[in-house]
């Protein structure tokens, strides 16, 4: 594959702004645009997007104006994926590379069913992004891990990594991307859901107690399901994560699902507890803690 000469993005939430602004500031030869319908473009333009206090002025393109691009980043919330998958169709050609930065393990499968052979698998991790309306604050932009599903290192994988690196985005090319996706799902399944249900920051979840216990139990359920799916997460992966990674988070910060609950935005419970419950039933693996989180988060959403 040749170098990336055109690119687009759909979704200007936290990760859309985080990755989209560097892409806007370093457009490829044939341009970069944010995909949105006319009504959404008017909303975006009415309230300026801010990234660490800096105004971000994006170029927009409606689906009706779309032409195939070399690289397409999908950064919508999971609840908007079905609509986004239809809206990107004019931008997808035979050689388009699609990368989804949605949490969980299901968005690539959804997009691959519609656009076979176009997907690279990815994991976005290490960022401390906090969004309030159209404003994003992020001190640590983290890294985007990219890989082919089969673990090979292909020309298109290298081209995508080179393009994103040229935009100033930290990229890691991986030959074990499915393992990395499941490891992040393990973390999200415990950390995000516990923070949202128990209304706690990272610091609150570091303290021993019922909330941390539920967080760790949910992670162990993910490990058990991963084993049945052929992903060899270590049995002690939750404890290793708690010991080595949890201390890196600012005590007064919070994961995205708690931000969603506080803002009364739909959560990603289907991508976390929902997926683990479904796969648990498939393999006969009990998931009582994910059942608990699923029920509680649905109750919280229904109150809005």
CA distance, first residue to last residue:
48 Å
User: What's the Cα radius of gyration?
Assistant: 19 Å
For the secondary structure, the number of strands is: 12
Number of helices: 12
List unreliable stretches of 5+ residues. Answer: none
Which CATH class of the largest domain is shown?
Alpha Beta
Relevant terms:
N-(1-d-carboxylethyl)-l-norvaline Dehydrogenase, domain 2; 17% strand; 304 residues
Mind explaining what this structure looks like?
- The longest helix is centred in the middle third of the chain and has 22 residues, at 177-198.
- The protein has an 8-stranded mixed sheet with strand order 5-2-1-6-7-8-11-12, sandwiched between helices.
- Helix 6 runs antiparallel to helix 8 (210-228), helix 6 runs parallel beside helix 10 (256-262) and helix 11 runs antiparallel to helix 12.
- It has 12 helices and 12 strands.
- Helix content is 45%, strand content 17%.
- Strand 9 (130-132) and strand 10 (135-137) form a beta hairpin.
- The protein is an alpha/beta fold.
- It folds into 2 domains: 7-175, NAD(P)-binding Rossmann-like Domain (Rossmann fold, 3-Layer(aba) Sandwich); 179-302, N-(1-d-carboxylethyl)-l-norvaline Dehydrogenase, domain 2.
- The mean pLDDT is 95.
């Amino acid at each position: 594959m040749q170098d990336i000469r055109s690119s687009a993005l759909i979704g200007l939430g936290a990760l859309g702004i985080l990755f989209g602004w560097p892409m806007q500031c370093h457009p490829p030869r044939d341009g970069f645009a944010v995909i949105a319908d006319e009504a959404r473009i008017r909303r975006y333009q009415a309230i300026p997007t801010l990234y660490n206090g800096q105004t971000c002025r994006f170029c927009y393109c409606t689906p009706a104006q779309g032409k195939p691009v070399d690289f397409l980043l999908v950064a919508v919330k999971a609840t908007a994926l079905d609509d986004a998958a239809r809206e990107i169709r004019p931008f997808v050609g035979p050689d388009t590379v699609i990368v989804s930065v949605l949490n969980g393990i299901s968005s690539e499968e959804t997009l691959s069913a519609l656009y076979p052979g176009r997907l690279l698998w990815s994991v976005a991790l290490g960022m401390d992004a906090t969004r309030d309306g159209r404003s994003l604050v992020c001190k640590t932009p983290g890294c985007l891990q990219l890989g082919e599903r089969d673990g090979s290192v292909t020309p298109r994988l290298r081209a995508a990594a080179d393009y994103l690196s040229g935009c100033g985005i930290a990229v890691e090319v991986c030959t074990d991307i499915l393992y990395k996706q499941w490891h992040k799902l393990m973390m999200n399944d415990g950390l995000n859901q516990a923070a949202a249900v128990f209304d706690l920051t990272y610091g609150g979840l570091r303290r021993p107690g019922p909330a941390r216990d539920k967080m760790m139990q949910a992670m162990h359920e993910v490990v058990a399901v991963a084993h049945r799916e052929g992903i060899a997460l270590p049995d002690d992966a939750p404890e290793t994560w708690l010991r080595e990674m949890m201390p890196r988070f600012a005590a007064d910060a919070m994961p995205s699902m708690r931000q969603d609950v506080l803002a009364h935005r739909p959560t990603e419970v289907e991508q976390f507890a929902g997926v683990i419950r479904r796969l648990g039933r498939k393999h006969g693996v009990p998931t009582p803690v994910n059942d608990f989180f699923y029920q509680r988060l649905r109750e919280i959403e229904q109150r809005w």
